[in-house]
Design a protein that fits this description.
By secondary structure, this protein is of the alpha+beta class. Helices cover 60% and strands 8% of the residues. The chain has a 4-stranded antiparallel sheet with strand order 3-10-5-8. It starts with a helix and ends in a 5-residue tail after the last helix.
Amino acid sequence: MNQDSKVKTTESSPPAPPKARKLLPVLDPSGDHYYWWLNTMVFPVMYNLIIIVCRFACFPDLQQSYLVVWLVLDYTSDLLYLLDIVVRFHTGFLDQGILVVDKGRISSRYVRTWSFFLDLASLMPTDLAFLRLGPHTPTVRLNRFLRAPRLFEAFDRTETRTAYPNAFRITKLMLYIFVVIHWNSCLYFALSRYLGFGRDAWVYPDPAQPGFERLRRQYLYSFYFSTLILTTVGDTPLPAREEEYLFMVGDFLLAVMGFATIMGSMSSVIYNMNTADAAFYPDHALVKKYMKQQHVNRRLERRVIDWYQHLQINKKMTNEVAILQHFRVQIFQNCEASLLEELVLKLQPQTYSPGEYVCRKGDIGREMYIIREGQLAVVADDGVTQYAVLGAGLYFGEISIINIKGNMSGNRRTANIKSLGYSDLFCLSKEDLREVLSEYPKAQVVMEEKGREILLKMNKLDVNAEAAEIALQEATESRLRGLDQQLDDLQTKFARLLAELESSALKIAYRIERLEWQTREWPMPEEMAEADDEGEPGEGTSQGGKGRTGQEGLPDPE
């Protein structure tokens, strides 16, 4: 039984589908495999764009001399074209942000696009025309140009991935210029052959002349002539025939469009570079203009310029985001990870030039500093004597941003800190710390305890003053609680008084309405009479007496 079941299980498991999935996986259009395949497709597309036009009735010697090489390269590129269609059928797409890996949906989507029809048209077996026209007619392969969109897609992907996008844009522009000049040179040579070599000074010289019969000379001469025309340099022979005039006019128009494209592309590259610099570095021209308007002295102006050059030369940005991975400050140890993350986001980068003071003794401390790079010296009041040197990773001023009771130095700086060279620091202000700690009260208590321990080790904590401040704080809190209780009592009394006032106003309104009815000829409504009867005896008697008196005082309507 066990062996039979094992045999049945083995026979029922299909091994083929897993192998098929491994051989033909679904590619992510933003993944590396798809990117490298696009780069592979650059070679067959560029081969067809450059070589076919040379063999197309332009340089017949090139076609006849290397026929076997061209046939091998042609069918290799056709094989890559065919594989590219297979890759298209296995390239996923995003649907509502999710990668679709269902091959049925991928195939149905691909066959409904224009890319599918262009890919099929570029792979049509037009080479069968060789059987009738002969192998020296490469014009039948012009449909291979329809795969050019894959070239543009590969360039776009590379431009977004490369670390030097501006250099790649310039390289791509130069490649386009080369292709245009290459095509134009081939057309020039074909037109010269059509009109007759050496018939005038404008066409290609007669190959019978020594040196002009070589294939390399023919191509280089045509390429040079086309370059002169498309760059509008001049120094070209005047055309003598109508066909030559038309060719020159078309080239001049193409040159104008080429110059416009080149200027636009180069302007875009320069603008992007300037925009990138402006996003990370201050505009030194505006800074210089501002200092000139404010009549800043030469020494300060020189320091500002040196600081700007330091940022540019060392590629340091003034608005860095990725700054610290861990807080190594003692008072922040044992704090929550979310608190540290918020504190890191509050850090502001600052750069100090050589000889500049970060803080002076006696200044009010409103921020703490963490040294990212550079060296700082603890100096005496003369600014020369050095007591200690602080390096990267150290910190100072952390006690000044926490209000610790009994701190003998208060919030005043106790030392002079001076930058020895260019120093990059991260600054955390007291306001930012208070804003973050408002959401973490327990962390605030822990940090105050840590700061108190540090002050005790430094003998800068007055215990008696701390106890007095604590007693004063408790007394103040007790008075505040008493004031809160008195305020609650006053609010209660005010509410009662307001209720009595509303009740008195309602009673007065009833009395006025009853008196109005008593002064009229018709009887009082039963509801009001019942309300009057239900009133207090004394009150009702006095009111009734007043009402009767009022009635007796009125004249008889008859």
